[in-house]
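Reviewer 2 asked us to include a model.

Predict the structure of this chain.
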Amino acid sequence: MALRSACTNFAGMKGFWELLKRFVPPYKKYIALNILFNLLAAFLTLFSFALIIPILEMLFGLNSNHYEFMALGSGSLQDVVVNDFYYYVQCIIERYGQSTALACIAAALVFMTGLKTGSSYLSFFYMIPIRTGVVRDIRNQIYHKMTSLPIGFFSNERKGDVMARMSGDVTEVENSIMTSLDMLFKNPIMIIACLVMMIVISWQLTLFVLVLLPIAGWVMGTVGKRLKRVSLEGQNQWGVLLSNIEETIGGLRIVKAFNAEGKVNRRFEGENEKYRDIQTRMNRRYVLAHPMSEFLGTLTIAIVLWFGGTLILGGHGGSLTAPKFIYYMVIFYNIINPAKDLSKAAYSIQRGLASMERIDKILAADNPIKSPEHPVPLTKMDQGIQYNNVRFRYGDAWVIDDVTLDIKRGQTVALVGQSGSGKTTMADLLPRFYDVQEGSISIDGTDIRQFNVTDLRALMGNVNQEAILFNDTFYNNITFGVDNATREQVEEAARIANAYDFIMASEQGFDTNIGDRGCKLSGGQRQRISIARAILKNPPILILDEATSALDTESEHLVQDALDKLMRNRTTLVIAHRLSTIKNADLICVMQDGRIIERGTHDELIAKEGAYKHLVDMQTF
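Predicted model (structure tokens):
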């Protein structure tokens, strides 16, 4: 029946065993205890039901033998144990009567069943830390991998799909694979123990059973294989749904402004209907497991009952008596439920493996931004930054094409140009958010790929066009990434960033929560918090990516004042949209199609009357 199903499914479950190898070893102690108590439960199950034989023989008067006590060593262990058991039953019958003997055997059966159920409970008890621990470890590994992967990885992935893998797929692994672990450790032990006892009782009948089971198992295995394929399809569609939700929430202002509620609703309903169809097909196949296994199990029992009864009635059963046959059927029935559970576990694991495949797309993703095995120490910058014939592309076209730029220590260098000219990419290459594909970027003459990535980024502070803040307090946002900062240092950074006054005017001062992405603050306030964060970090290299382009005039003035304070005595790379903010830069580079087409100071470039002069004129009213 389902035993063969389990074997068939397990043969193709390399992913499952790989999962156990990867995540279960830290919990070896719990596994050992679980197996110990499962073995004890199997032993107690077999020998508690063995008490059925003398009960039946006494009730029907089938055993008229007279037994004498046998000492250990006077025969095989099995013969001594069986003989002495019947001897003590015989003594109880002779002294107290059959009714008392039956009561004693029944009490022994209850006692052994109590021990068995207690052992079963303890086996589950020690399995739970494995289940919960493995799921925790998977979540941790996904999150750690996600934070270590380069920004480019997430440019090619839907954010909603990544979230689906961290939430829905991990939950599916927990619900399917981890909840099946107890069955996978317990049931094979019970099945093997029962099969051994069945062979001891009647090897002929057991051979017939082992020939019969694979036929039912083949049917179960065929359905299980299809289930994994449909489950993978369902998890992919769930990722599409989450992406749809995430995009809608992020763009709700535009949806409402363009009266596009109907359009996004129809799109979501269409994707949701696809998901519903997949779930319907998958769950219909999944719920088929129980009735199918029940029917096949009953059919198998009926055939075995007929075949065994025929052996006894025809006088071909050998030592197989009627009480032993009933005991045999009780043991065989005890295989059915574990085999059914094993079959259901195999179905569940197929679903979980589909989710694990999606999880592994993140866990197995290659991170090209690696620190060298023996990094060059980097704690400060003495000379400056050099871009040496740098070329970089995202697809086929070069976004940065043969750029050479020398930034001296303490200089402010501005990059200007139309959108898509490569300014932001130039800045992203410096902290190794991406790696150059040709040429190199150096600090003090050493290629930045020779430094530890953490050391490299520790030298830099970023202030972006969109202030990236977290749903936390002012204090925790300013101290983000800076350990051991004192309250005085945080307050001083806020003062320099022109943020102290509005922070103190809030309900709880620095302990006020600023909402999701700082939604409780104005654009200028958010930007000043991000500047305070950069000030507290006190980096020697500063990257400003259009930090004032989205602000009104008053906010721009406050933010620009904070930026001026931040830029003092630092090497600064500025990406500027408003050219009025970079008039005093030491060097201005005009970019076009990934190349620097002009460079010089503001006055020098104005005098050239080239591309820079054209950009200035376009911003002059």
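The longest helix spans residues 98-148. The longest strand covers residues 398-408. We have added this to the supplementary material.
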